[in-house]
Amino acid sequence: MRIFVTGATGFVGAAVVKELIGAGHEVIGLARSDAAVKSLMAAGAQVHKGDLEDLASLREGAANADGIIHTAFNHDFSKFKDSCGTDRRVIELFGTVLAGSERPLVVTSALGILPQGHLATEETLSVSGPAGHLRAASEEAAMMTGKHGVRVAVIRLAPTVHGEGDHNFIPILIRLAKEKGISAYIGEGSNCWPAVHRLDAARLFRLVLEKGVAGSRYHAVAEEGIPFREIAGVIGRQLNLPVVSITPQEAANHFGWFVNFAAMDVPALSQLTREQLAWQPTQLGLIQDLSLPHYFKA
């Protein structure tokens, strides 16, 4: 198939592009910079210039594809509300272009939008609006496209998608530990982060594209919940820093804008995902991955 991929040079998206090409698909990657163009060409993908704000360009890229994998999202959390609005508009646009065609649309969501402190399954629903999570509107918009003849599916990524080249949550924790001189967790540190290696996640994107059931939600979860204190413990040992419990009152000062992520408690299963798609994670787990030098080179 000829697949249009947004976020095609991102940490997850680049792995998805490689996985798709390796499986014989033709990839058209969205690129907003010269560096992205070079990266996509080197990976063997075709290039479509544009960005998430350029709806005309997105419409053209989508119209010329047999399917779409949407991994792009602006992770500038100072503009999170605006980013969620943009994401919803992009998904609605893709739904308009693909309406009535049964061409697949795979949309990226996140486990962090789900209710906290409960073991989530693929059937657990998010809540948007004033009482819910802003990004839940993206998942709802995706499911709405299914009512217009789009073979849509959602992949909820674990809070930490790890592996070499990671520049997301784990590197943030490592930088904070270096700056503060301690590797901290809140209270007992029993809040859990699910995890998945980027290569296992990339394979799941391909399987959902090829075999996903319309209207389904899938969980990119290899490990259902790692206590945050274990993550903090490995970081502390690797940096030779104290591993310290801090109170909820101290957490805001220590973690700053990242405090809600540090307190995130979203254990999740992926049983239905594995059964429906025969997806079996094979890469290193998070704690094993953190024992390798690539997270601590700098």
How is this fold's topology laid out?
Elements lengths: L1 E5 L4 H12 L3 E6 L2 H10 L2 E4 L5 H9 L3 E4 L9 H19 L5 E7 L25 H10 L5 E7 L2 E3 L6 H12 L2 E4 L5 E6 H14 L4 E5 L2 E5 H12 L3 E4 L1 H8 L3 H4 L8 H7 L8 H5 L8
Parallel strand pairs: 1-2, 1-4, 2-3, 4-5, 5-6, 6-10, 7-9, 8-12
Antiparallel strand pairs: 9-11
Task: Report what the structure shows.
- With 298 residues, this protein is an alpha/beta fold.
- The protein has two domains: 2-160 and 195-222, NAD(P)-binding Rossmann-like Domain (Rossmann fold); 163-194 and 224-265 and 283-296, Alpha-Beta Complex (UDP-galactose 4-epimerase, domain 1), CATH 3.90.25.
- It is built from twelve helices and twelve strands.
- The longest helix is centred in the N-terminal third of the chain and has 19 residues, at 80-98.
- The radius of gyration is 19 Å and the shape is globular.
- The relative contact order is 0.14.
Mean pLDDT: 94
Q: Remind me, CATH topology of the largest domain?
A: Rossmann fold
Which blocks of ≥5 consecutive residues have pLDDT under 50?
Answer: none
Lateral strand order in the biggest sheet: 3-2-1-4-5-6-10
Protein traits:
alpha/beta, Rossmann fold, seven-stranded parallel beta sheet, three-stranded mixed beta sheet, 41% helix
